[in-house]
Amino acid sequence: MQIQAEYVVDYAALLGTRPARSAGDELRDVQAYLPLVKRVARQLNSQAGGALDREDMEQIGLMGLLEALRRYGEPDARFGSYAAMRIRGAILDELRRQDWRPRTVRQQSHRIRDAVRGLSRSLGREPTEAEVIKELGITVDAWKEHLLDENAEVIGSFDDLMQETGGMLEKSPSPEDQLIIRRSLEQALGQLDEREQRIVQMYYEFELSYKEIAAVLDLTDARVCQLNKGALKKMKNFLQGSLEKK
Prior knowledge:
This protein has helices at residues 6-9, 23-45, 54-72, 79-97, 103-123, 129-136, 140-167, 175-189, 194-205, 210-217, 221-244. It is built from eleven helices and no strands. The protein has 246 residues and is mainly alpha-helical.
């Protein structure tokens, strides 16, 4: 399958100087993109761990939308993906600021991570969900919570890198600069297998939740979490390497 790469290019949307827009125009656009704020808040709700309720997440996401509109200017066909990144980033930043994972939870997460690595080494392959749960003596819900926590961190880190990559285009970019960024993002997608590409596409382009993606692919929520985390790490490593070469 050839994944559609257009939505990824939105991360590198041009952020050059544009004429100031009226309050009426801004209000109109905010109202038009409110459903996007609600979708992103719903998508991240399971990862908030109760630190923020849905209404709070939507309010924070609204501020992210306003920032996106003021940076981007007049919305076009590609604005939605750029705005989703800013909205998601605003919510994840607030979760990080509140340090939504208590120290005991973080310690438990490190213990699980180390145990999974050890199990992988002993098996010579990636362990299945059932093998991990049996080895660690934890419940399915505890394992799922661990994956959601880790995914929140990876998504936040990946979005930060996307904003850094987009920042390369803020200084009167030349067509050559734009082409380099586009190719880097498309090549990063190329590091993924077909299933990983579909998951990234459904999460970032269509703002589907893990549960919805799991239903489409006939996988468990936990497995989707694992695949998404691995895919984003592959893309992040590739993009970091590309940035270091520039």
